[in-house]
């Protein structure tokens, strides 16, 4: 199948999942992440705010990260002209902004994708200006257990990881978090697609 066909198939499957199944799998993966040595040793972590249906829910991961004393950075799609440090030729790009639990609780949907994101880009909160990230929890439409990932098709994360390496001189640990229904044997990937260090998936029920 093509990337487009895989996304269409996975989206259809995910939209049939019950809230109970989403919650149970999300809780299981949150505990798996907490047990990873690379997570325990990380200070600066990025965690996405999940959509209601099409991906693993990250509220427990966020709560754990704050409880564990991590500095938590939330993805924001930022216009490239807003960020004087931007490297590249995209009109918009991903930034990761430091947010407290209280700030996250107040976030509202913004932008063309109606994602929960910080309303404003503040350079002082940008991970690139805060020592960089140690670990990134990466969303996706589909994964393989050996680290392949198919995103939503906009290339935001692949672009971000490359820029993070250029700016900070290091690559954060990339952890994909997946529902069982998102795991496939193989994916139609290209050379620019970043491979993940870990893919966490709930154990079979």
From TrEMBL:
Catalytically driven reaction(s): (6S)-5-formyl-5,6,7,8-tetrahydrofolate + ATP = (6R)-5,10-methenyltetrahydrofolate + ADP + phosphate
Binding annotation for ATP: 3-7, 149-157
Pfam families, per database record: 5-FTHF_cyc-lig (PF01812)
Annotated GO CC locations: mitochondrion
Positions bound to substrate: 49, 55
Essential cofactor(s): Mg(2+)
EC numbers for this chain: 6.3.3.2
Keywords on record: ATP-binding, Magnesium, Metal-binding, Nucleotide-binding
Matches recorded under NCBIfam families: MTHFS_bact
PANTHER family: 5-FORMYLTETRAHYDROFOLATE CYCLO-LIGASE, ATPASE INHIBITOR/5-FORMYLTETRAHYDROFOLATE CYCLO-LIGASE
Protein family membership: Belongs to the 5-formyltetrahydrofolate cyclo-ligase family.
This protein's name: 5-formyltetrahydrofolate cyclo-ligase
Highest classification ranks of the organism: Eukaryota, Fungi, Dikarya, Ascomycota, Saccharomycotina
């Amino acid at each position: 199948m093509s990337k487009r066909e895989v996304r269409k198939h996975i989206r259809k499957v995910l939209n049939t999942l019950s809230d109970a199944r989403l919650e149970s799998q999300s809780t299981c993966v949150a505990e798996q992440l907490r047990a990873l040595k690379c997570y325990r040793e990380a200070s600066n972590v990025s965690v996405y705010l999940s959509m209601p249906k099409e991906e693993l829910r990250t509220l427990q991961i966020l709560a754990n990260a704050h409880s564990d004393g991590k500095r938590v950075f939330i993805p924001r799609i930022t216009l490239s002209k807003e960020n004087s440090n931007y490297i590249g030729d995209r009109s918009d790009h991903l930034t990761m902004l430091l947010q407290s639990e209280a700030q996250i609780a107040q976030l509202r949907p913004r932008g063309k994708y109606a994602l929960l994101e910080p309303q404003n880009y503040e350079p002082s909160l940008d991970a690139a200006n805060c020592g960089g990230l140690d670990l990134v929890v990466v969303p996706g439409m589909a994964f393989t257990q050996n680290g392949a990932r198919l995103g939503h098709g906009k290339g935001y994360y692949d672009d971000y990881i490359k820029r993070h390496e250029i700016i900070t001189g290091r690559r954060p640990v990339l952890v994909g978090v997946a529902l069982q229904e998102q795991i496939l044997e193989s994916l139609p990937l290209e050379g620019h697609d970043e491979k993940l260090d870990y893919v966490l998936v709930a154990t079979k029920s």
